[in-house]
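New to this. Help decode both lines:
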Amino acid sequence: MEIMELNKKKSIKQRLLEAFPEFYGRFLEDPIKTEEQEKAYKMIINFLDEVEPPKVSDEIMSQLEKTMDFWTDDRMAEVGDRKQESIENPEKFLEDYSEMIE
C-alpha cells in the first residue's frame, strides 16, 4: 500500500493535525471566519492535492504499516490522557516511572 493510499483514508483535518501537532493543531479546531482564512485553507488543500508522495521502499512501507496498526485512535487517546495526567500531577508521574527514567 502506498503512502498516498494510506493518507486518502484520513480526513484533511487528521492529515493536518499529524503535520502540525500540539501547538499548531489547536488552531485547526476553529471554524473558518474570514476570506483570508478561506484562501489559506484552499492553498493548503491545493498543495496537499498536488504534492507527489515520496518513493518509499517496500521494507519501509511494511514498517510504516505496522506502526500505523499499532497507533490506533484508542492508543493515541490513552497516551494523550497519560501525558495530561503527568502534567497535572508530575510527582505521581515521577513516582510511577522513576525506574524507567533513571
Q: What stands out?
A: The two ends are 40 Å apart (CA to CA).
